[in-house]
Amino acid sequence: MRISRRDSLRLTGAAAAMALLPSAARGSSPRFKVGVTDWNLKLENKPAAIALAKRVGFDGVQVSLGKGADRLPLADPALQQAYLAESRRVGLPIASVCLEILHVNGLKNDPLARRWVADSIPIARALGVKVVLLPFFGKQALQTAAEMDAVGDALRELAPLAEKAGIVLGLEDTISARDNVRIMERSQSPAVLTYYDVGNSTRNGFDVVEEIRWLGAARICEVHLKDNPHFLGKGTIDFPAVMAALADVGFTRWAQLETDSPSGSVENDMATNLAYIRGLMTS
After folding, report:
1. Could you give the number of structural domains in the chain?
2. CB-based contacts of 79: which residues, under 8 Å, 6+ apart?
3. Residues in the chain where the model's pLDDT stays below 50
4. Tens digit of pLDDT for each residue in 131-186?
5. N or C terminus of the chain: which is more exposed, having fewer CB within 10 Å?
6. What CA–CA distances, in Å, run from 133 to 58, 136, 171, 224?
């Protein structure tokens, strides 16, 4: 298959973005770190999520930046220091952050969203993480080409701030891998990548194994693993095939469990799902 000059340039830029992210040697088995979202631990925007994630056995935790009328809660240096102190005390890193306020102020049409993205970048840097998740769901979901182009244009303005800080802005949404790459290309920045969620993509009718293989590791900054409301391996998603695809493309960064708790026990159900994923990584 011939690769166009445009695709060649895009892949070169994506490779540059990989330098912003932790890496490891490629192998035939998955070699990524497994974290967990603080909102699925029921400790959204709370430092206590770090200790719970450690107790369950995760490698790290993805932290919500919170919602606020005037500023993001984690813009508070005191709260940042509380997170960092707890991370050191427990011995568990903060893996990445989620700009959840974009559920309210959508980047596709709300000028305030641009401010929130800009504000998230120094917070991520202060917390020592490399990825800010940008969500597009509900009323803020991307539905038209014009909306996708508007997001790409907004990120073209914001991306230089991320590049300077060594931060990647990750697109998590309900659109196809190819439409995500369309936004990435329009942003004209290696600091804009896909935050791939296997549950969202399956629910919206996409072949997640095909999409992961098509995207490749260079265009994926992080992954969400889920098949809600089921335990992993008990729903419709073929997780052995997903894990094989991630291994084959050489994905070595963070995968976060964004899983529900079917039994009602967050700690027990998270431990069950983590054990399942770890089992696939060593099988």
Report:
1. 1
2. 47, 73
3. 1-12, 14-15, 17-19, 22-27
4. 999 999 999 999 999 999 999 999 999 999 999 999 999 999 999 999 999 999 99
5. N
6. 19, 10, 6, 11
The domain that contains 15 carries what CATH number?
Answer: 3.20.20.150
Task: Tell me the C-alpha distance between 131 and 41, whole Å.
Answer: 20
How many other CB atoms are found less than 10 A from the CB of residue 266?
Answer: 18
* pTM of the model as a whole: 0.90
pLDDT tens-digit series, residues 184-195: 999 999 999 999
